[in-house]
Amino acid sequence: xxxxxxxxxxxxxxxxxxxxxxxxxxxxxxxxxxxxxxxxxxxxxxxxxxxxxxxxxxxxxxxxxxxxxxxxxxxxxxxxxxxxxxxxxxxxxxxxxxxxxxxxxxxxxxxxxxxxxxxxxxxxxxxxxxxxxxxxxxxxxxxxxxxxxxxxxxxxxxxxxxxxxxxxxxxxxxxxxxxxxxxxxxxxxxxxxxxxxxxxxxxxxxxxxxxxxxxxxxxxxxxxxxxxxxxxxxxxxxxxxxxxxxxxxxxxxxxxxxxxxxxxxx
Length: 266
What we know:
By secondary structure, this protein is α/β, with parallel strands linked by helices. The protein has two domains: 8-220, TIM Barrel, CATH 3.20.20.60; 224-265, no CATH class. The chain is 47% helix and 14% strand. It has an eight-stranded parallel beta sheet. A two-stranded antiparallel sheet has the order 9-10. Helix 2 runs parallel beside helix 3, helix 9 packs parallel to helix 10 (212-220) and helix 11 (224-237) crosses helix 12.
């Protein structure tokens, strides 16, 4: 499970172990067993036990645990540490909060902080820089609710989205993962949002239904035209500092982008 290169993250309620295998077969890069929003308070312990059973048997998944201010957090972390699975942390607001989680998970911890508050956006660079953080993800629904704006249409969200992209790059983390699209029937809207994420610098997207997975994976896959351009650039550059490809100057940063596209395709 390569969290840094993953494009489609698919949530499945941890109360539905009958769906775990189906989710794994849906083509998502990462299946996220959800112990948080998808689970009612009275079902938290049952959900945790179901996730632990699947993970202990070798089921490939990460878990979204409950936030640090809940009574379920410690037990969720203990389960994740026992199984060695990657963890998505909701309401990630500071680097110190994430560092404590990484320390509790132990050696080899892999964490995806979910930034879904204004405090998390403002602390994004510190969050991204914590050793053990693979990348961050945007919780646009919760953030929009806190700000009182539409998470899918408001210009207010553009600044927060850019903050995650810049913070990730500054910390040397993988590009952030975009938030969910709530309308599972509108494939065109999903595709448009995924393409927008690509153009803004995101590297993947959270999904809430298996039908969204192929749309997201396709949108985040480099196009044939991009790959052809990248191959021309790499072939022309060789050991030369500056060349011209398709009438445009190619120097080191452009060459690095071309190589990154080819790596993404692989």
